[in-house]
Amino acid sequence: MSSTVITCPSCTTKNRVPDIASGKPQCAGCHTKLPWLIEVDEAGFTQAVKGSSLPVVVDLWAPWCGPCRMVAPELEKLASERAGELRVVKVNVDEAPGVSARLGVQGIPTLLLFHDGNEVGRQVGALPGPALRSWIDDTLA
């Protein structure tokens, strides 16, 4: 099982969190909720989305895509701001083409919002931070 090391923003303790874990990761040192941003491949995608008790934002991206690189820092901020409330999963479409094919994705960046394992929203194209937060809030409302 793969895992990601997440540094606690409060106390800087490094925490190993399984990529396909359910629940809300907390720091082992100070018990602060941790931002949950992971990268998955085709094998880990279904478990990362279906096994999550939190809403999941899926970012389908590629390293050569300029708009994808513009969205990435906003997603990192979002994961930190909404620690314990939201999970961010990144999928490199060049390394996991089956995920984008299965989901019918034709352009990147594409952001998908999953709740209880079901797709509830889709956004094609880059959004600035405030618009990204509004899209998530409006879709989950």
Mean of pLDDT = 90
- Percent helix among the residues? 25-40%
Number of helices: 4
Write the H/E string, N to C. Answer: EEEHEHEHEEH
Alpha-carbon distance between the two ends: 33 Å
Q: How is the largest sheet built, in terms of strand order? A: 3-5-4-6-7
- As a percent range, the share of strand residues is 25-35%
Low-pLDDT runs: none
Largest sheet: 5 strands, mixed
Rg is: 14 Å
What structural class should be given to the helix and strand makeup?
alpha/beta
Structure description:
- The protein is an alpha/beta fold and 141 residues long.
- The protein is built from four helices and seven strands.
- The strands form two sheets. Strands 3-5-4-6-7 form a five-stranded mixed sheet, with helices on both faces.
- A hairpin with a 2-residue loop joins strand 6 and strand 7.
- The chain is globular and about 45 Å long.
- The protein starts with a strand and ends with a helix.
Write the layout of secondary structure elements.
Blueprint: E1 3-7, E2 14-18, E3 36-39, H1 42-50, E4 56-61, H2 66-81, E5 87-92, H3 97-103, E6 110-115, E7 118-124, H4 129-140
Parallel strand pairs: 3-5, 4-5
Antiparallel strand pairs: 1-2, 4-6, 6-7
Keywords:
141 residues; five-stranded mixed sheet; two-stranded antiparallel sheet; 4 helices
In short:
The protein is an alpha/beta fold.
